[in-house]
Design brief:
It is built from 28 helices and 34 strands. It has 860 residues and is α/β, with parallel strands linked by helices. Strands 5-4-16-15-14-6-7 form a seven-stranded mixed β-sheet, with helices on both faces. It has a six-stranded mixed beta barrel with strand order 21-25-22-24-23-26. A hairpin with a 2-residue loop joins β28 and β29. α2 crosses α20.
Length: 860
């Protein structure tokens, strides 16, 4: 059976063709007919088939630690929420949702909270990634409308990437940029403090100081005005300029504020002036900031004032992080808006209530994510329902998020996964349908609505989120929740977008109100608002004009002696959020096997760190241990760590413990990219690793981190004290081992049925064998005991180096050897020689970076 559906990862919204090969296995390919990706998939999408098994799934409702039936669990949720509301009022309860939910799930949750319970205390993890873009759109356009399409990337003469490691985080968009550069010579500017693989390929990289984007784009606008590059006619006809806007535009030394060379700044100004067809694509580096809304408005201001909007190849383009962050915004999944892009004016609240025929309506905005958990910690929120997200990992200062969850009297968690850092705090756990089982819609970054179709039967008693929410609503005595299927929810939402709209809002899909279930099942991807919403209509403001918004650059205080460094957090290429899905894939786990702290070599030396050693990264909020990666691609006195590791996969490497809880005053979005920090060496008494066919107990040591391999698990270990207890990590079986307590050495291999089941290597001196050969021996009977204890075969194998291409398992040294031996000069030549880069293409930028002097080679 072949089913067309949509990828569940980033906001690119790629079409996927899934072909079921058994009850729980499928082959995955890109959908050649989907306009977002045209058949291409990145590494994560390519290996979706490795993540759809039942390992770790929550299969039945749970009350406490006991299995329960759906009726019992739902009755308990409804009664506890109802009792809490009766005693403490509607604002004592909350929902915390996720960009992983489908639009239909989001819609029912929002309707229940805002129109029936009567509180706007429903927010989403999208608050952590795109809320500042939303707020900026509303301030500038009157509505949360992305004014661009992916086709604009094909038509642009200049693409500016701001705070976006596109090659890693949105690889299909990156490949589209590559194609535009190859076919039309499009120029590329990357603005990012880090020299990422994206920045490596740019015509100009501006490694600006963290949070200096406002100064940069205010300076750019002042420059465009001084060189007569503003569009006076567009300003007069389509833009309202507040009084005094131009006077306070750029009074500071922009190059100094951004900590970049004046010549580089001028080069950026010149490129922008010379290329009117400009797309500025911005993402988390802009949004995840305490000045994120001003950053986004500074970018939008430049495009409005120069008329680079509403035409092909031009516009400010916010690209979302999650697959349905946009869909959640459309149906009111944020605490700061109602459904169908409505606000909280009396007229809008009345309109929503009349449409829903609901008994009440929320009086105004609710608590945003961080404020919501603050209210839990202080006892004001007494019941919370968390859906498809893991706030104990992802919220800033995650220690306080855990205090809040522990303090909340009633916590409900809907999830696919049985054990997460958040579900530990739940009184009720509800099993949710996962990707490949769910039916509904998602909206991608270019406003394109796509169907997500189930191709597997939900396992156990798993149910769609919308069904569970509707059942609770009915048990609370509310009418209007008798939905037979996802299609009926979609029709209701479509009708609401057109209800008393009369063209006031761009979001209007009311032409879908009367579609049949068959038409819904077959619905092709469509784009609301058209390719360029503001090309043929005015803005969603009372006078139809966009607004230039005054913005202000507020530099962070660098005078903190206790925390003199700056911490940035972000994503790895092949992992997703807290790895509950991608962490199941052996292929995806090989690109980065451990959470690394990336540090400039000068800073490594100054701090006394060791490349490849361990470091304790500390902020005012907490500390965690990471493996050190010395790299000149990092700015001096700045650190970068990944967000993905959790208590389930590591005893360290926990980025969520570190960021400050400061947030943007307009959007409420936390600033994950610029936290005062310090780093000190951690020199363990011993280090080691455990290989095992089966998942073993969590180690009790200062540092451990675990990833999947093709035949089991690899756990890195480091700590202090006696090493003898570590042997308890090994399973039962026949052992070949060498243990020397005096020297601090353990080498142990466990056999079962003649095959290697586990191996443990520990050393106080740091002398440990390479992992790759041993990993390949798991489940095999080929190696002799002396080879296993030595950690290497009798005939030495070449060291392939760290993995570059996960699709074909090609390492760095293999690529370098091929380039040298065969004199390869392009990414295509490398692919022809050793296959690397010829499947999903996510590793193409990394391969290109290994070809000195061949900057253009990646674009062939």
């Amino acid at each position: 059976m072949m089913v067309k559906t949509t990828c569940p990862y980033c906001g690119v919204g790629c079409g996927v063709v899934a072909t079921l090969t058994s009850a729980r296995t499928a082959t995955i390919a890109g959908d050649p007919d989907h306009p977002a990706n045209r058949g291409k998939l990145c590494s994560k999408g390519t290996h979706l088939g490795e993540t759809i098994g039942l390992e770790g799934r929550l299969l039945h409702p749970m009350i406490g630690s006991e299995r329960a039936g759906w009726h019992e669990a739902l009755d308990l949720v409804a009664s506890r929420f109802a009792a809490t509301i009766a005693e403490y009022g509607p604002d004592s309860v909350a929902f915390y949702a996720s960009g992983q939910m489908l639009t239909e799930d989001y819609y029912v949750a929002n309707k229940l909270m805002k129109g029936f319970i009567g509180t706007a205390n429903i927010d989403t993890n999208s608050r952590l990634c795109m809320a500042s873009a939303v707020a900026a759109h509303v301030r500038a356009f009157g509505e949360d409308v992305v004014p661009c399409s992916y086709d604009d990337l094909d038509a642009a003469d200049l693409i500016v990437l701001v705070g976006s490691n596109t090659a890693w985080c949105h690889p299909i968009v990156w490949q589209r940029i590559e194609a535009a550069r190859s076919s039309r010579g499009t120029k590329l500017v990357v603005i990012d403090p880090r020299r990422t693989e994206t920045a490596e390929r740019a015509d100009l990289h501006l490694a600006i100081a963290p949070d200096s984007d406002v100064a940069l784009f205010a300076g750019l606008l002042a420059e465009m005005r001084s060189v007569w590059r503003l569009d006076g006619r567009y300003l007069a006809e389509h833009v309202a300029v507040p009084e005094g806007f131009w006077k306070g535009l750029a009074a500071s030394d922009v190059a100094k504020a951004c900590d970049i060379a004046p010549a580089d700044l001028q080069a950026f100004y010149n490129l922008f002036a010379e290329h009117p067809r400009t797309v500025t694509l911005f993402s988390q580096g802009v949004n995840q900031s305490i000045s994120g809304t001003d950053k986004a408005n500074a970018i939008i201001n430049v495009h409005l004032a120069t008329g680079r909007i509403g035409k092909p190849g031009a516009g400010p383009f916010s690209i979302t992080g999650q697959p349905n962050a946009m869909g959640g915004r459309e149906v009111g999944g944020l605490a700061s808006m109602l459904a169908a892009h409505m606000g909280f004016s009396d007229a809008e609240r009345d309109r929503a209530q009349r449409f829903w025929q609901s008994p009440t309506i929320c009086p105004g905005p609710g608590l945003k994510a961080v404020d919501m958990f603050d209210a839990m910690a202080k006892g004001r929120i007494k019941a919370v329902w968390i859906m498809a997200t893991n706030p104990a990992v992802s919220l800033p200062d995650a220690r306080m998020a855990r205090v809040a969850l522990a303090n909340c009297p009633f916590v409900v968690v809907s999830d696919c996964i049985a054990a997460t850092d958040t579900s530990f705090y739940a009184q009720v756990k509800l099993p949710a349908s996962g990707w490949g089982e769910k039916d509904g819609t998602v909206t991608n970054s270019e406003r394109r609505v796509s169907r997500q179709r189930g191709f597997m039967t939900p396992p156990g008693e798993a149910k769609p989120d919308w069904w569970a929410i509707a059942e609770v609503a009915k048990r609370m005595g509310f009418a209007g929740f008798d939905y037979p299927d996802a299609a009926s929810i979609f029709r209701e939402f479509a009708a609401q977008t057109g209800f008393e709209n009369d063209g006031a809002r761009v979001l209007d899909i009311s032409d879908k109100t009367d579609i049949s279930n068959e038409e819904y099942d077959a619905m092709a991807p469509f784009q609301w608002g058209g390719a360029s919403p503001f090309a043929t209509r005015g803005y969603a403001t009372p006078d139809g004009k966009a607004r230039l918004v005054p913005v202000r650059h507020v530099p962070r205080d660098d005078g903190n002696r206790a925390f003199p460094l700056r911490l940035n957090t972000g994503r790895y290429r092949d992992q997703w959020h807290s790895m509950t899905r991608t962490g199941l894939s052996p292929k995806l786990s090989q690109h980065r096997r451990e959470p690394l702290v990336e540090v400039h070599p000068d800073t490594v030396q100054r701090l006394g760190l060791t490349d490849g050693g361990l470091a304790r990264v500390q902020t005012a909020q907490g500390s965690s241990i990471f493996r050190v990666a010395s790299t000149p691609d990092q700015r001096r006195r700045e650190l970068f760590v990944p967000i993905h590791w959790t208590d389930q996969t590591s005893g360290a490497g926990r980025a969520g413990l570190l960021p400050a809880r400061d947030r943007d005053p307009v959007s409420g979005q936390p600033g994950f990219k610029n936290t005062p920090a310090t780093a000190t060496p951690y020199k363990p008494g011993w280090s080691g690793f455990l290989l095992s066919r089966d998942l073993q107990a969590k180690p009790d040591c200062a540092y451990w981190t675990r990833i999947r391999t093709a035949s089991g698990w690899l756990t890195e270990l480091a700590g202090d004290g006696d090493i003898a207890p570590l042997t308890a990590l090994l399973p039962e079986g026949e052992r070949a081992e060498m243990i020397d307590p005096k020297r601090g050495v353990i080498r142990s291999a466990v056999m079962a049925d003649g095959m290697l089941r586990a191996a443990l290597f520990v050393s106080r001196s740091g002398g440990l064998p390479p992992r790759d050969w041993l990993i390949a021996q798991l489940g095999q009977a080929d190696a002799a005991p002396f080879e296993l204890l030595a950690g290497r075969p009798a005939t030495p194998m070449p060291d392939r180096g760290r993995i570059i291409c996960v699709c074909f398992d090609v390492g760095l040294n293999t690529v370098l050897d091929a380039i040298a031996a065969q004199r390869l000069v392009s990414v295509e030549a490398v692919g022809a020689a050793i296959n690397a880069g010829t499947n999903c293409g996510s590793c193409r930028p990394a391969i290109a970076a290994l070809l000195p002097g061949q900057k253009e080679a990646a674009y062939g």
